[in-house]
Amino acid sequence: MSRLFRDVEGGVLFPQGSVACIGAFDGLHRGHRALVRHAVERARALGVPAVALAFEPLPREFFARDNPPPRLMLARDKVATLRGLGIDSVGLLRFDAKMAATSAEDFVRGLLVRRLGAREVWIGPKFHFGNRRGGDLALLQAMGAELGFAAGEIAPVHLGGERISSTRIRELLVAGEFAHAADLLGRPYTIGGRVVRGQQLGRTLGFPTANLRFPRTPALSGIYATWVHGVFGDSGRSGPWPSVSSFGTRPTVQGVEPLLEAHLFDFQGDLYGRHIEVEFVAKLRDEEKFNDLPALTEQMHRDARQARHILSKHASPSQKPAHSCADTENASPSQQPAHPCADSSITAAQG
């Protein structure tokens, strides 16, 4: 049975033992998936649960609260994706002042050994944890030799000679290079959520939208050509739906929090309460403040025409054969010995 836990402290979760992997897992790109899949394979071989440990908020968000780094993926999608990769239990650990002050040694003894009964612990390259980043592979292996668990790391994953990282993917998204970002992610970049009611300003302007709130600092800002997944129109049509989307704070109407607004072309139907995913294809322009709503509406028509043109030449991956390129299955763990003895909710509306 899948389990989600939030705390380092507490009772024993896996008396039979477990295999754990640790990381930020922001975006769950090909490198993350190599780590997760290796941990799952080792857990299956040992007949114990596979556990992924991540942090919420991300440590860098906690330490840079006035200027947090862009987030690729919110917590709900991260947990769902980890489970989809075969993880049996997710520790979405609360990163607060107490966690920041926890030494690497106490983290190992209290969580990995006592709560999880870890038999193996796997991390990504150059991963650090604990107060002042005091924990690394060497510490894990030394403590594992003493406390009876194995520790290893996954080698960096490269694609076309380029090392895959969340930082690089954020850079590509900001630059509007979505195809390149999709190659490193292993899938198109999407943001998903459940449809809720918005202010319905778009409807009054002739552009009803599906509104998705994003409570973290997003990696994107601007106007985009997009596909929306998970919708079914009144006509019975389904599948990826062409759309134009705005992602930002809506300066023309004095918005504050980031909001993703997707206008689905020629759509008739009720999306409230439905979970949708918005796939980003191309950036049309930056977000800007207009003098009045008529000027905004005129620009929205231009954006819609441009998005239709782009999407007419670009099929969503679900509309064409899967792209064949290097995947995380081709990655292998480092040559470190495996045994010391031998990485919201989002809410959303078309209204």
Secondary structure elements and pairings:
Blueprint: E1 3-5, E2 18-22, H1 30-46, E3 50-56, H2 59-63, H3 75-84, E4 89-94, H4 97-101, H5 104-115, E5 118-123, H6 137-147, E6 150-153, E7 158-159, E8 162-163, H7 166-174, H8 178-185, E9 190-194, H9 201-204, E10 210-213, E11 222-229, E12 241-248, E13 259-264, E14 275-285, H10 293-312, E15 347-348
Parallel strand pairs: 1-4, 2-3, 2-5, 3-4, 5-6
Antiparallel strand pairs: 7-8, 9-14, 10-13, 10-15, 11-12, 11-14, 12-13
Helix pairs in contact: 5-6, 7-8
Task: Produce a short descriptive summary.
By secondary structure, this protein is an alpha/beta fold. The protein is built from ten helices and 15 strands.
Count of alpha/pi helices: 10
The shape is elongated
Portion of residues within helices: 25-40%
Question: Spans of 5+ residues with little confidence (pLDDT < 50)?
Answer: 320-351
Taken as a percent bin, the fraction of beta residues is 15-25%
The H/E string reads EEHEHHEHHEHEEEHHEHEEEEEHE
Terminus-to-terminus distance? 38 Å
Radius of gyration, whole Å = 22 Å
- Structural class designation: alpha/beta
Number of extended strands = 15
Strand order of the largest sheet: 9-14-11-12-13-10-15
Average pLDDT over all residues:
87
- Sheet of most strands: 7 strands, antiparallel
